[in-house]
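TOPIC: backbone geometry
CONTENTS: sequence, structure tokens:
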Amino acid sequence: MSKEFHELALEYHKGDRPGKIFVSSHKALATHHDLSLAYTPGVAAPVREIAKDKSKVYDYTIKGNLVAVITDGSAVLGLGNVGPLAAKPVMEGKGVLFKQFADIDVFNIEVDTQDVDEFINTVKNIAPTFGGINLEDISAPRCFEIEQRLIEMLDIPVFHDDQHGTAIIIAAGLLNALEIQGKTPEHTTLTCLGAGAAGIATLDLLCELGFKKSNILLVDSKGIITDGRNNLSKEKLSYKRTTDKKTLADAMNNCDVFVGVASANLVSKEMVRSMADNPIVFALSNPDPEISPADANSVRDDLIMATGRSDYPNQVNNVLGFPFIFRGALDAKASEINTEMKIAAVHALKDLAKLEVPKDVLKAYNTDSISFGKDYIIPKPFDKRLIDVVPKAVYDAAISSGVSRI
């Protein structure tokens, strides 16, 4: 980040009113009568109804359109364990995206503990306020246990976006890239660099979509996850392989797909050159990818590449997912966001990229033409059709899979 951009960002967040979000009322409160309806004595009417039937809380309060964006600040962006206060701008930013893209209201909550049990109890105790819980920027492997235990405890959707939001967008783009490159999931070899929240969740979802564990090599900071490694988490153990290969370079040799969710500049030109014909590279570390598109394209002319950046084609951006996934889940009054709902979101995003791109999207990106192909494998964040197709797919999957209250 340049010094000029750093200062611009600080001024953006400070401005005349610090922060990015605020709470506002959408009911009239201009007269004595309004006041008597909004608070006492009128407020007693919905209280009595909810006391008789708890489901009425969705009729008379914000609960059905309110999501908690919750963190402990232990894994914020690429900045690491910066703590709850430093995480607050990111959580506010998430709230802005929820509201802008899916008209979902958010309370951002920064919890001052990194003890798993204490964090879980905090979320459990405040959960009645919300229609859904979006966990954010929580370090692995703690995040896996936290999410799973909360899913089991609560009757509202609990969704760790760093895991599943990332996985859904990667999967949608990757399925389209495979189609363009003439490959199929069941016969594709894949190397994943990064065994944290995003890496594990992505592999889990890809296996639900037809990829074979026997064709996957998972690489962490110590090398390939093999059965010769000790002290592996249970998440890593599920992807251990019996192989003589040890390094990232070994793993990438002759593989079809590389997915990087690790750190900048870990992949060399030689590694990309060694990949199979018509390779696919998703170098998703932010702000700097595992290998730059310029370097990767300089050694392969048969490559499809995606990054996490908006200044390159094929941006893998979670904003394509979480607002619309929660919109569908909330509208369905779902008790969870299950695998069927995630897969529905994948296919909705995948299929949308194949449709003709509207003129307002072309205008937003200052171009005359965007069409399905190597430089467009996933929709753009400002495609207004997202709010129509993704929530409906998620809603329908919630109904058909039996997790909806409707």
